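Hello again, I could really use a second opinion on something today. I've dropped the whole record in just underneath, so have a look.
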Amino acid sequence: MANSTREIRQRIKSVKNIAQVTKAMEAVSAAKMRKAQQQVLATRPYSQQAREVLTYIARLTNTESELNPLIRPRPVKRVGILLVTGDRGLAGGFNANVIRRCAQVMREKRKEGAEVTVVAIGKKGREWLLRYDPVVRAEFTSIPDNPTTYHIGPIVRILIDDFLSGHTDEVLMVYTDFVNTIRQEPIVHQLLPVQPADPSATMAPEYIFEPSPEAVLNRVLYGFTEVQVLQAIYESLASEHSARMVAMRNATDAAGELIDDLTLTYNKARQGSVTSELMDIIGGTTAQEGSTSKAATASEAWLTVNWESASSLA
């Protein structure tokens, strides 16, 4: 029983150490999450407005004669996917959900007869691709928590160059969209070619371009693509930190419940050990008292016999 209580004490100590680590990680993730949320909420309106303006420009009739290659649709035989995951785990189902969504898109495109290549952002996505489906066109890891156009410039350049050279006919982004602290949704967004706005969407009756719509498109398309990729990374970072904070909080709560259960088990084992020791002591005392009583009875009987013998001789 002593070995059992000792093992339980060691396990309680180990769980407490784990709880301290998860609580510290929760605090760090909470701080990063607040910054990432502020960042993504601040940049989201600009990204949405830039996308709307560009899709409106692509819908104008006077641009149909000389479309920029980045908005000119063509038959899809090769598909490029930009997969955005995290570099670390311990974030609940964050990485698994976005990877599962990417695998679904890859299966759908292959059923349609298209070849698929992937540009991976994050170690988790890269490791999954190398393990199950080696179609990695490029990989980028160690993206900072506050990325800028300097950090994503090479990513955008690869995507655009592959599309312009015909290596890909369509470019999709698979990333996790930040909804709130509890909810994050993996989504698929078509990056290239730029899709014109829906004809039913309202827009200004006429835009005045200087020098021309084609010149405007040539200047802003690269910047637009860059903004979309940067926003996707912002959304993914906010989702990752939120998922990790929630996962660490759940781990800390689970550790606390396990400590309570182990403490109860330890107390029961200790109580049983103490009870067993008391029973041994009581049994020993009883046995000793029984031996003493028998010895006293034998002594009294010997004295009685000797006294009777002495009386008869007298």
In short: Residues 213-313 form the longest helix (101 residues). The first strand starts at residue 78 and ends at 84. The mean pLDDT is 82.
